[in-house]
């Protein structure tokens, strides 16, 4: 289900516009992954892998479309105050109550991981993603912890500045 929503929900719209962008020889595609899409996380197996697939799509697509003056940005936002996060948190609370009632071990690691970053405002996240896309950055991260995570997990991500290349 998450692959359909996260990955294919990125593939299909891109396919719909890429031909026109290549013909016009201009374009910008922005994918939204997640900080949890930059590495595998305990308790987030399905989510992390579906968001990491977006990163792979973005890296490969950037190489293919660059000769046509089409560029890709992939955003790695942290937890953001959205209806989706509110729904996810309800599920976490229900799962925790069930584990306590059934005397099951609580996925402490999972809870600790999701509590390590502050919840961001959607407006702040959106402004940063748009700013990074306009500047031509391949990676878009929020805050200093997001920047460090992007730098530490850069892999073969395209470098869009000399400074970024040296840091990686």
Automatic annotation (TrEMBL):
Highest taxon, organism lineage: Eukaryota
PANTHER family: 3-KETODIHYDROSPHINGOSINE REDUCTASE
A Pfam family annotated for this UniProt entry: adh_short
GO terms classed as biological process: 3-keto-sphinganine metabolic process; sphingolipid biosynthetic process
Keywords from the named record: Oxidoreductase
Keyword Methyltransferase: no
Source organism of the structure: Neotoma lepida (Desert woodrat)
Official protein name in the record: 3-ketodihydrosphingosine reductase
Keyword Oxidoreductase included in the entry's annotation: yes
MF terms (GO), sorted A to Z: 3-dehydrosphinganine reductase activity
GO CC, any one term: endoplasmic reticulum membrane
Entries under SUPFAM superfamilies matching the protein: NAD(P)-binding Rossmann-fold domains (SSF51735)
